[in-house]
Amino acid sequence: MPAAAQKLVATPPGPNKGNVSAPVAALLSLTASDGSGLELVSLSAQAVIEDPLAFTELHLTFRNPESRVREGRFRITLPPGATISRFAMRIGDRWQEGEIVEQQAARIAYEDFLHRRQDPALLETEAGNEFSARVFPIPPHATKELIVSYAQELTRTGESYRLPLYGLPKLGTLTIRALVGKAKTTTGAASSLGGQRAQHEVVEVSKRDFKPDRDFEVAPGGAAGRLGLRHDNLVVARVVPLAEGARVDAVSSLFVLIDSSESRALGLGDLIAAFEGLMAALRKTGDPMVSVAAFDQDVAPIFMGRASAMGDRVRRKLTERRALGASDLDHALGWLAGAAKKDQRARVLLVTDGVVTAGDVAADKLRARVKALGPAGVERLDVLAVGGIRDDVLLGRLVTAGLARDGVVLDGTRLSSPEVSARRLTRATRSGVKVAVDGAGWVWPAVLNGVQPGDEVLVYADLPRDRPFHLKIDGVPLNVAGGLVSVPGPLLERAWVRARIARVIEQRDNAAASDRDLAEALKKQAIDLSVKYRVLCPFTSLLVLETEQDYARFGIERRSLADILTIGAGGIALVHRTNVAAPSEQQDWQQEWPKQDDSNVPATARPLAKDRAGLDGTRNKRHVMEHVASGSAQSTAASRTPAKGSLDDLLEGSLTGSKLGAQRMLAPPPAPTPPPPRVASESQPRATAAANNAFAADTAVPADSGIAGLSAVRAAGASGAVEGQLKEILSLIHRGQAKQALTKALAWRQRDAGDVLALVALGECWEALGDGTQAARAYGSIIDLFPGRADMRRFAGEHLERIRSAGALALAVDTYRKTVEQRPDHPASHRLLGFALLKQGHPRQAFDALAAGIAQSYPRDRFRGVDRILREDLGLAAAAWMKAEPSHANDVRDRLNRAGGTPETAPSLRFILNWETDANDVDFHIRDGKGGHAFYSAPRLPSGGELYADVTTGYGPECFTIRGPAAARAAAPYRLQAHYYSRGPMGYGMGKLQVIDHDGRGGLRFEERPFVIMQDGAYVDLGVVAGTIGGNVAAIVK
């Protein structure tokens, strides 16, 4: 065994006493888009450790166990400050390399090529130091191979290199090879031709059928005494800028804000233990007055008194509250300004991961919030950073936001003891410390803020190769121990570029509040550096396309880009771009599927035949209807049982909207038998029949979509749209047993904290029990889990709207704003934002939001009929605006005309269906009280009303409008259904029916009915609507 292997550190999880020792999540996770697991077959890791830098390359092989094509969702959590430099996917017998592209453009390109039935993959920043990738296709019973590489810093002397493995499933094979640098500093040339002398120790691990019970760690012991690394003009050095002792900064009063959002669910026990350990150590220095509050999307005070009187009260309160909801630090800091002044607290401690998912998330805005605490008497803010996924950069910016004294970021993991954290909390910091290197053209960081004696810092410099490294702190030379080790350039170059990008981003954050143009220019500079040097940044993504023509169509000249950093037999190596050119002709991914006999596989699980796999799903439907008319088609029941699994990674992206099993679709079946009337009970405090007289024409289906969940989704029966635990819980709610349902939902969520369906079930239970606050936290949790996914944000907002509270609606508006920023090319983002703003009573803002939707360009043939829908939506907003501000009516009409909107001056009733699943087909069916039936092949009802278009490529929206006054709607009531026509590779479907009743004079009433469909071919009953919306449905825009 190599000598260095003796330094392999075994770190199994231990009890969480005082500080945190156990990781709360695995390094990576692999799921299908509907959350069902993909089997991790093997993990091969290589690492090069050149203290204070390290580079890691992961080769992952995972398998699709199902008999249908899937889109995979891959998540990886990197060490704090690490940056990804490579993402590659094996296509056939070759590796296709990802290219770094501006983030929004990469997202659009991914979906564009996905709809062309090509092999795209997309990797981007998710939240903090977590990254996610979308990989398509994963053929049935086939494997998919990925390579991901990243670089990281080892800031502290003697810090071990760590590869997180604990929490991974059982692996078929695990291999690790780490090269630990042992190079010595030299004063002369390594040879007559120059070069470097390098020496490595090798650590090798090989396991089979192994479930990791600990992480892999190796200490860079042989690098003792080294100051840093150098290659030509590039330098990085680890220095201690302040050596003298720090004065005491005692904590006499403290306000603690503890993050209780969904992201802390897996690590809530560790968070509590870290906080209690710090408080116990702090009490040794005194007994301060302490106020404690929990925050997520709301704020809840939980303790006030002396630290010695706290006992286990905080633990009990946090455990009872549970970790739920989105993380709105902006709101929490605003609330804190009043609370800290009232309680007279001079110090603030944030216990959080820094991953902000709601409210204002920009660093400059949050820093302004912190600075505003000064007038309330707060003098210093510190952070106890917890969790594996966190945003250390933002946390560092918050503790130096401009209060009287800067604070520090404490490590809430096992790397720091509570005693060390308490000592740092009670010591003063220094800020404005200037860093300079003699002769350097560029230094980062140039100024240090919030530093304490003994803190170690990595300093990067652009220093001419003939100049020695002479460091000055505040103009005074600093004696540094050790020497710079000469190393090959690639690793140091990428780290140096990352430092340059960090500098540019900090400049952008500082300029954002005062000069938006400068901030945008700095953002572009960061993107340019990221693309040129293959260093991912917050504004870029890694995009894998299939052919050279694909990259050319997207404007990427691949041979002109930086070489790829990899690991060879002797250490860091480069893959030259001339060796990775993609094939020049498109290859159909279906040709790669293994040959197999699928005659016994249900139709929905077989590979698509080419003549049925195009974008034109409507053509297939029409072909079916021709057979229906001639009587040549035969109906068969849907036989597929979906794979059991969570919904933690579902929805946005996959395949083409083509029709799996289209041959078995006849004319839609009769409406399913409605469930029995709901019975009012103690678990159903909201009135049903009496309060919903607008729906009295069919009392068997509840009118108030919020009462029993999922808008009258059939809670029982083999043909129901839902199954498994969700079906069981909804059935209990349906029978008036919401408390029992809540018990089951809480147990489900405890077992599987990341399961979206469990959160939906919780929200449904709390709505049934009349607890809108907790229901909103359950739906807000979806935002916290998937802050970077517009589809999941929209789905959460659709449920939040139904709660009908000011707080829930405000969170829905906030998340819709962010979906517009993330995916302006999705029309649903604009529509949902516009109508949510109308509900808030902001018709002018609603008009602007919908006008932006009309002005946005959308992919051709992706959203059929959306132009008409958006133009009429704008007309509704204009009507509401004119009613609210009649003196501005002429100006509003002029703006409506210039924006291309359609005037809406007559009464109408609209049903709009949208769903949060890409590249599949959910059909809208409308039946009237006279037996009429409108759907894709018969879009008009004889009694009046029209279905605008049939969207077969995902997301919707589809709209059915009935024009005329309510009294003229003699064909009411209308029964509404959604049919999961083609599930495809995406898995489960989620969406919303929105009912809009316009009185013709700007008065609007709304009804929101979210739904879930889990079974291919299933129908979900969306309830009935009388000729108008009345009863307890609020007329929010008056």
Which terms summarize this structure?
globular; 42 strands; alpha+beta; seven-stranded mixed sheet; six-stranded antiparallel sheet; Immunoglobulin-like; 1038 residues; Rossmann fold; disordered C terminus
What does the model show?
There is one protein chain. This protein has 1038 residues and is of the alpha+beta class. Among the domains are: 219 residues, Sandwich (Immunoglobulin-like); 173 residues, Rossmann fold. Helix content is 27%, strand content 25%. Strands 7-6-11-4-3-13-14 form a seven-stranded mixed sheet. The longest helix is centred in the middle third of the chain and has 24 residues. The N terminus and C terminus are likely disordered.
- Anisotropy-based shape: globular
What structural category do the secondary elements indicate?
Answer: alpha+beta
Please name the CATH architecture of one domain. Answer: Sandwich
Level of helix content? Answer: 25-40%
Biggest sheet architecture:
7 strands, mixed
Instruction: State the CATH class of one domain.
Output: Mainly Beta
Rg result:
30 Å
Uncertain runs are: 1-24, 581-620, 622-719, 1031-1038
Say how many strands there are.
42
